[in-house]
Write a structure and sequence with these properties.
Blueprint lengths: L1 H40 L58 E10 L11 E10 L11 E8 L5 E4 L1 E4 L4 E7 L4 E11 L1 H11 L8 E9 L7 E10 L7 E4 L2 H4 L2 E6 L9 E6 L1 H12 L13 E2 L6 E4 L7 H4 L12 E4 L2 E4 L9 H8 L3 E6 L1 H14 L5 E6 L3 E6 L4 E7 L9 E2 L6 H6 L9 E5 L10 H21 L5 E4 L9 H6 L2 H14 L5 E4 L2 H6 L10 H16 L2
Parallel strand pairs: 17-20, 17-22, 22-23, 23-24
Antiparallel strand pairs: 1-2, 2-6, 3-4, 3-7, 4-15, 5-6, 7-13, 7-14, 8-9, 8-12, 9-11, 10-11, 12-21, 15-16, 18-19, 19-20
Helix pairs in contact: 7-13
Amino acid sequence: MATESAKRLKSRRGGKLRFLLLFQIILGLLVSVTGLWYLVTTDAHILVLKPIKKMPSQFYSTKHANHSTNNLTDTGRKPVSGPGTRAVDTTNKTADSGITSAAFSCYRLVTPQEQITKGSLLHFIIEAHDESQQPMPSGGDFLLATMSTTNPYKASTAGRIVDHNNGTYSVYFYAAWSGNVEINVTLVNPSKAVRFLRDTMWNIGPKVFWSATFQNMTIALFSNKTFDTNCWVEHWKDVTSFDCKYPAPNALGDYVFVCHQAVDGLCRPLDVIEMDAKMSNKFTDEAAGENTRYFERKYFNQRLLKGPQVIAVSDNNTTLATNIANLVDQSSKLSHGYWMNKKWTSFVYTNHWTDASDIQNCLRNKHMLLLGDSTTRQWAENLSELLDLVNGIYREEIRELFFENEFPQINFTYTFRFHPHAITAKRAPYRLYRYFVDILDSISSYECANTIVVLSPWAHFAQWTRDSYTQRLVKLKEAVDRLKKRCPATPIIVKGSHIREHYTETSKWGWSDYVLLQINILMKEIFTGKGIWFLDVWDMNLSYLSTKFIHMPNAVVQEELKLALAYVCKR
């Protein structure tokens, strides 16, 4: 009897297990069919289901170029110039006439040798040629120039490049030291690559995507994995009724952060988020298409060798003080400063704060808000060293995104916070991200008397469209204006962009140095006004004697900080 009873029990259990397995299989099929129906009927942006042979119209178009920003100068469509680059003729539409070649372009010294002395202005002329050795008939090349020496001391500076729009360029250097100096003129991008970056690449999107999980969402009963969705930033006119919307008009303007709906067609609050690098790179490369030929090695970041590599600067035994007064105006044809043994001498702001006790007194009873990206995080990490204080009260949630340090000795606290929509593989809770406009609006009139604000939103936005990034900056500037109205004495520093490394092919056209420079110019144009100081660090980073990285050495970061403190402490 016991044996028969056990057999019946086993049979019933087997039947239940088979029924449960069949139920799960049927449920899984229903979920799969529902998901496929949703993807097909909603024109969802899933690469696996919709292989991309050409630019996908639903994502990948120039429609964003038509979404204009109210009364804002279109910096990409006028001649651009700035220290160390820099002038790019963006109005010339001359027919194709070859591609500028660094191997056949040349430069020559114009300044007479007897006038090449310490404290003088050196003038070079660049003549651009194509691979057939024919002179280029128009300008528009993206060029960089530096002057340096390594013996008996390390010194360097960036040159100012002026585009004459006829295939020739002037380069100006300020000779702040004597001895043999090395001249380096680099063709970063030929004019055809610049036109593609300016007129096409920067205007189409989205090109950057994120993977996210919904709160309390599972694929099916037999899985404990949360459901992943893709997210991106879209103009509100192009958002469909099937997209989950996470609007922030006070921060993004006409753009909306959107995600695919869940399999069941519902939208939920986001739980965690990270960048989808594979998807972002794929769409970015799709945008480049055949234009990648303009970024081949022979055209990209190539030094010009036809020209004087080394020249001698004589010492005339005069000081630089009489000349520096003429360099303060940033619109001059000169660099913003020069390096001497890892110390930066600025022609823009000559007061340097280097003594720790002076810095402590300046920051006593203050709260510094450092709002930006990982380059801003470097400021926070180096600030403690400049203060020369130990045993701070440190708090963090995820160090990459948010932390603060309090120094009771001087009643000083600094807080670092990363901007939303970070382009990083770091998986993070979505709740940690706060828009900077909301942070600025939350500063009360009582708090602002002791608040210092640093803004630096640039390193993660080269893949955004020009219009979406511009609108984000404009909204941030509006929040700054509201803060200045409540707190006119609050110092606000906006730190600009700098050159970076490019180890992958996608990076050459996806987040190019040309676009980073345009971002620098755009930030400078938008963040103007009394009580707002734009800290241009392009020349400082460009001319530093090391390989260029997004995260520059601490010596550079600390010199940037000293300039910022000079503004804050000597206002």
